[in-house]
Structure formats: C-alpha cells, structure tokens
Design goal:
This protein is mainly beta and 360 residues long. It folds into three domains: 157 residues, Immunoglobulin-like; 82 residues, Sandwich (Immunoglobulin-like), CATH 2.60.40; 80 residues, Immunoglobulin-like. Helix content is 5%, strand content 49%. The chain is built from one helix and 24 strands. A five-stranded antiparallel β-sheet has the order 5-2-1-8-9, with no helix packed on it. Strands 4-3-6-7 form a four-stranded antiparallel β-sheet, with no helix packed on it. Strands 10, 13, 16 and 17 form a four-stranded mixed β-sheet that branches. Strand 23 and strand 24 form a beta hairpin. The longest helix is centred in the first third of the chain and has 19 residues. The protein is globular.
C-alpha cells in the first residue's frame, strides 16, 4: 500500500512539473519568399525548437488552396534548442500549390506532438503581401525578395516584413539591406515650411518613438522597405493630424514625400511630471465584445486623462476620457482582432503605454 501511495505521489508530481514547466513548442516562421521564372515561388522557413516535440505535419495555405510538405524539419537529436532554415518550392509539396507573385496571403501550419498528449497541437505563421487590403508590403519586383526583418509586434509572433534587392535564401537575412530613405518638406496648416528645432516623431514600433529632426523645413528618415501609411505625426509630444498618405518604400532608394500638417503645432503646454503612473488594464487578452477594465493609481479627476487605442500601423482606433480611478470601457464592436497599443495620456501627453490583444 505504501508503494502504491508513493507511486501515486510520483505520478502527481510528474504531472505538476509538466504543467509548471511545459515542453517548449516548436516554431516555424516565414523567413523569406522569392519568385523566379524557373522554380516559381521559393518559400524559406525559419524552424526552431527543443526536442522532444516532433513536427508531424506541415501545410502551406495560399489564396489558391493548400498543400502538405513532403519534407519536415528535424531536430539534432538533443534536448538543446536547434534551428534551421528550410526552403520549400512547388516540388517540395505533395500536390500543386500556386502562390500569386502579385499578391497573396500565405499561412504555414505545423502539427506537433508532445510526449504527454495524444492529440496534435498547432502553430501557424502568416505573410500577406501585394494586392490584399490588409497587406503591409507591396509585391516584390524582379530580383527582389520579401524577408522577415527581425522586428515583431510587441511580444506576439506577428512579424514585420520588408523587401530587399539582395535575397539571401539559404542564409539568414541581411537586415541592413531592407531599408530605404524617405525625405521631403514639412508644411504647417498655413502651407508654410515648418522652421523648428523640435523633433518630429514619424515612425512608431511598439510604444517606442523614432525621432526625426526638422531642419529648414525638411526631414529625412530611414524606413523599412514596406508599405507606409500615416495620418499623423508627433511634434513636441503633441499628436498632429496630417494629410494622409500611403507610399511603398523600395529598398536602397531615396523617395520623396511632403508632409502637410492639418493642425497647429505651436503653443504646447507641458504636462505635469508623473514619475510613476501605476495602472492596470484587464482582461488581456480581451475577447470580442468584452468590456475593458482599468485601475489607475493616480488622481485623474484633477487632470485631463484619456485612454487612446492605437493600431500597430499607427492609427488611432478609439479614445475615451478617464474620469475615475477605476471603471470599464466598452470598445467598439467593429475593432478587428489583433494587437493594439493602449496609451494613457495626461494633459495630452503620453505617460504610460501597454499592449492589448483583442480576440484571442
């Protein structure tokens, strides 16, 4: 009886360890895609993981259908982390699969088994390019490829992609080759050149801003070679609406885009310094239709406090005034699922930013 009890304790402890320290999930990311007249499409995947969690199936989806891969990435037989680059072509698939070089939505789905589960689990990654409404990047030209450039949207596995004139299939991507230069003049709302020593915030990744100096009414910035949409800039921490524009940045190029402010950027009052801005939002992730709750540990009634929800391409999707230290906010039902930045602003100045996932 004691032996049975001891074995039962061991089994329970083992299950507890599996829950507390789950076997790492193998991952397959889309690393690069290229087209040529002979092989058609060539899709490079970045695969890594820790064994044992063998990949048992890999399927590639496009707008034309789906096909399974004849080959699967394999580990090195050790429990240490392994990684490899894995290139698929039409010949790599069990059936024919077309990928449109002018634009497509590609999803790679893997199935893998854990040692303690009989049913397979899944992991997927998505690349959208070209003639799709949700695309962030134009179709590659002859001799170009589209590659993952090492940036991700916050902590989720949604990647930034960019074009390059120097494809690196079979090798890790050369990130430095995935940029172009955007330059132009910046005009105020009276159509006069902006002469200011202020730094203009032009591009935003996560909640970090990239400052761009304005010199004699001109600006110049290096940006990823993908599709850039903008309807605002920041000057002196003030968000200024601009005449919206969309431009497809080409790698190793200098492209011109003038910016026209639609609002006054002068006379900005400094917000009071708030060294610590304790705030909590929940639940996160947030299901569609679920109310967002917040708790603010600072006296917001005496300040102009607002919550701003910003999409990952920089568009303000929703704003709400905060009038109490606790409360709920009903977000619009029409918000697409995905990752957002939540900014809390005091007197029109951002004092706190965090990430929010909707629809997971």
């Amino acid at each position: 009886m004691k032996k049975v009890a001891f074995l039962l304790v061991c089994v329970l402890c083992g299950l507890k360890c599996l829950v507390a320290n789950p076997v790492p999930v193998p991952s397959v990311y889309i690393n690069e895609i290229m087209f040529d007249s002979e092989k058609g499409w060539m899709l490079e995947l970045l695969c890594y993981g820790e064994e044992p969690s063998p990949i048992v199936k890999m399927t590639v989806f496009s707008s034309s259908g789906s096909a399974e891969s004849k080959y699967l990435p394999v580990g090195n037989g050790e429990k240490d982390e392994w990684s490899q680059l894995f290139v698929l072509t039409r010949d790599s698939m069990e059936s024919n699969l077309d990928i449109n070089p002018l634009g497509d939505e590609i999803t790679v789905v893997i199935e893998f088994l854990r040692t303690y589960k009989e049913e397979p689990e899944y992991f997927d990654d998505v690349l959208i390019f070209g003639d799709f409404s949700s695309s962030r990047i134009a179709a590659p030209l002859d001799g170009q490829s589209i590659g993952y450039n090492g940036l991700r949207y916050c902590e989720c596995d949604v990647h930034y992609y960019a074009k390059t004139n120097e494809p690196t299939l079979g090798e890790y991507n050369s990130i430095s080759k995935m940029y172009g230069t955007l330059t132009g003049k910046i005009y105020d709302k009276d159509n006069q050149l902006v002469h200011s020593n202020d730094l203009m915030t032009f591009a935003r990744f996560y909640s970090i801003y990239s400052p761009v100096p304005i010199e004699d009414g001109s600006y110049s910035i290096q940006v990823l070679a993908n599709r850039l949409n903008r309807d605002y800039v920041y000057i002196s921490d003030k968000k200024i609406k601009i005449k919206p524009f969309t431009i497809d940045i080409e790698p190793d190029s200098i492209m011109e885009q003038d910016i026209y402010l639609l609002e006054d950027y002068t006379g900005i009052a400094e917000a009071p310094a708030v060294p610590d801005f304790p705030i909590r939002i929940y639940p996160n992730p947030l299901s569609g239709g679920q109310a967002l709750r917040y708790e603010v540990g600072t006296p917001v009634k005496s300040l102009e406090c607002r919550m701003e929800l910003v999409s990952m391409d920089g568009r303000t999707m929703f704003e709400s005034k905060i009038t109490d230290h606790t409360g709920t906010i009903n977000l619009p039902q029409s918000l697409p699922n995905g990752m957002y930045i939540v900014n809390f602003k005091l007197n029109n100045k951002i004092h706190y930013s965090t990430r929010l996932i909707i629809g997971q």
